[in-house]
Amino acid sequence: DQQVKQNSPSLSVQEGRISILNCDYTNSMFDYFLWYKKYPAEGPTFLISISSIKDKNEDGRFTVFLNKSAKHLSLHIVPSQPGDSAVYFCAATLTTSGTYKYIFGTGTRLKVLA
Amino acid sequence: DVKVTQSLRYLVKRTGEKVFLECVQDMDHENMFWYRQDPGLGLRLIYFSYDVKMKEKGDIPEGYSVSREKKERFSLILESASTNQTSMYLCASLGGTNEKLFFGSGTQLSVL
Questions:
Q1: What are the boundaries of each domain within chain A?
Q2: Exposed, middle or buried by CB within 10 Å (0-12, 13-18, 19+), for B40?
Q3: CATH number of the structural domain spanning residue B31
Q4: Residue B46: closest CA among B99, B109, B3
Q5: Which fold is adopted by the domain A4-113?
Q6: B80 vs chain A: nearest CA distance in angstroms?
Q7: Residues of B in contact with A105 (CB under 8 A)
Q8: pLDDT category, B26, cuts 50, 70, 90?
Q9: Are A43 and B105 inside 8 Å of each other by CB?
Q10: Contact: A44, B103; criterion CB under 8 Å
Q11: pLDDT higher than 70, residue B96
């Protein structure tokens, strides 16, 4: 049962335009949502996060939006740059009985075309 | 910055061999995790540990075991490797509730 879903396996965007990556989830008990970026042959690196009590968080070119009623979050990258080409994973955290788990989506491969 | 070290970048093993993957973190983090990454399946949690000698099964623990004898070190063991365990293995550590995970650079394991 995939609790965090990224339904678009890939996305291509022209340099300078907006990239929008989407993520859906099923568990309303998630505490935080995060986005990670992964280049080939490297580990994922943290990009941006949002608490479940917020609906927007912005950091430079990156903004994450959370729509709790739709159980949907999105990552906006404006403007997109060729160096943003990578696989993006959304993740959600769940705290149960004093331990916490990170649950990742399947990833979206973003290609920014110069 | 936090450093999570997986010293092996690539590893080739034969079916039935024992595989030992080691992960070391330098930030005194309590929580450590092992994931595997497969195309189209994302990152799937194998095991995690929230303290020394403590471990919890993740979503896909079958065929794996772990060891956490020291706080900084979390090892993943494949007692008898199989071809379906060919994958990228990623270790991560976490300092506290809802903080970000720090990942190692991963080990690409091929089981022939």
A1: 4-113
A2: exposed
A3: 2.60.40.10
A4: B109
A5: Immunoglobulin-like (2.60.40)
A6: 25
A7: 42
A8: very high
A9: yes
A10: yes
A11: no
